[in-house]
Specification:
The protein is built from four helices and no strands. It is mainly alpha-helical and 86 residues long. The longest helix is centred in the middle third of the chain and has 18 residues.
Length: 86
């Protein structure tokens, strides 16, 4: 019983500390947005990937990084409307 509580508290701590780990009430849209942002951050953080995309798209590396940063604002479009809670 003690191990279960310990693991549960560790998971709650990770979820409060890191946004991308999700939680029980996360919507599908929020989960996909986190996945896209993590991918874009990885592309920017790895120079070899940035260089590969630059060659494939015939753009400069700085333009690729700029485009990735722009996509991070709304990677999956406008969020869906949430139902009103009374």
């Amino acid at each position: 019983m003690g191990d279960r509580y310990n693991i549960h508290s560790q998971l709650e701590h990770l979820q409060s500390k890191y946004v991308g780990t999700g939680h029980a009430d996360i919507s599908k849209f929020e989960w996909v947005v986190n996945q896209h942002r993590d991918s874009l951050a990885s592309y920017i953080g790895h120079p070899n990937l940035t260089e590969f995309f630059a060659i494939a798209e015939n753009e400069s590396k700085a333009r690729i990084k700029f485009n990735c940063l722009q996509k991070m604002l709304q990677p999956c479009g406008v969020p869906p409307e949430k139902p009103e809670e009374d």
